[in-house]
Specification:
The complex is a heterodimer of chains A (116) and B (176). Helix content of chain A is 29%, strand content 35%. Chain A has 116 residues and is an alpha+beta fold. Chain A is globular and about 35 Å long. Chain B is elongated, with a radius of gyration of 16 Å. In chain B, helix 1 runs antiparallel to helix 5.
Chain lengths: 116, 176
């Protein structure tokens, strides 16, 4: 009985001391997630999929390469050059503007990302 | 690869398809043979790329060869995986044999060259090779393919060959 009481008190103490720290972390992450929407661009079969709409500066762009080939998303103005190996997922942060891009290995693959 | 030889191989091997299809008869070429032809074409270009990587000192040629080796190996790996999944063994045939023979002859020819002469010949051969295979893919192989997954892979292969042909044309033009 005495041992189990000590154990219970100990657990309560641990809970009290750690709970605020644990609670703070998800709250911060949640606030960050809400501020930055994630927009996915899928590459497959030698094509960039549909471009996301409603992208705002600061949002996350998630480039997902489902193709069997290595590709890149290379901005024509040089503002980004993302290497996308087969199966890779790469996240970047959107900047305001209209960015025409292409795959430097297969230049016929093109797209334009617009963020406000 | 010799342009005329390659075109001849494709024409001789696949030319009978159109008339056969017109008569609504059984396909003159089946998926197992088509898979073998596509695989052979890819393997020829990987071999040519490896030769280029061992011979060339030109940065643009080396980058191009790396891309050819990487992309064609990826298609061929996928083709083998698909064949295994479907329980199909790629079947050797006259067109594959002609392709392999032509590829080997071109390798020997290119091996005798060096420096700028080699780079130029390799680039020009890559233009001709991709053009010939692309014509066969779009004109004969893809329309004759029965299995949807193989057809989809060949369609992706067609886009790839188109990109490679353009890249090879730019490379060849830059070496003149």
């Amino acid at each position: 009985m005495f041992r189990s009481t000590i154990l219970a008190v100990g657990l309560l103490a641990l809970g009290c001391s750690f709970a605020p720290a644990f609670a703070a972390t998800p709250a911060t992450a949640s606030a960050t997630t809400q501020a930055k929407a994630v927009h996915v661009i899928v590459l497959d079969k030698m094509v960039f999929g549909p471009m996301p709409t409603g992208v705002r500066a600061g949002d996350i762009i998630e480039w997902v390469n489902h193709d069997i080939f290595e590709h890149s998303a290379t901005a024509r103005d040089g503002s980004f050059d993302i290497d996308l190996k087969p199966g890779a997922t790469v996240r970047t942060t959107a900047k305001a503007g209209s960015f025409a891009f292409f795959c430097k290995f297969h230049p016929g693959m093109t797209g334009t990302l617009v963020a406000k | 690869m010799n342009k005329s030889l390659f075109a001849l191989a494709l024409t001789l091997g696949l030319g009978s398809l159109a008339s056969v299809h017109a008569q609504q008869a059984a396909p003159a070429i089946n998926d197992a043979q088509i898979a073998h032809i596509a695989y052979t074409a890819g393997a020829i270009d990987v071999t040519a790329a490896k030769q280029a990587l061992s011979k060339s000192h030109n940065k643009a040629v080396i980058e191009f060869a790396k891309e050819m080796a990487r992309d064609h190996a990826a298609v061929n790996d996928q083709a083998l995986a698909l064949a295994k999944k479907l329980g199909v063994t790629p079947a050797d045939n006259a067109t594959s044999q002609s392709l392999a023979k032509g590829g080997s002859a071109e390798q020997t020819k290119l091996a005798a060259l060096s420096g700028a002469a080699y780079d130029k010949a390799y680039a020009e051969n890559e233009v001709a090779f991709h053009k010939a295979v692309l014509a066969a893919l779009d004109g004969t192989l893809i329309p004759a393919t029965q299995n949807a997954e193989l057809k989809s892979l060949l369609e992706t292969g067609s886009k790839l060959f188109h990109e490679h042909q353009m890249h090879a044309e730019h490379l060849a033009a830059s070496l003149k």
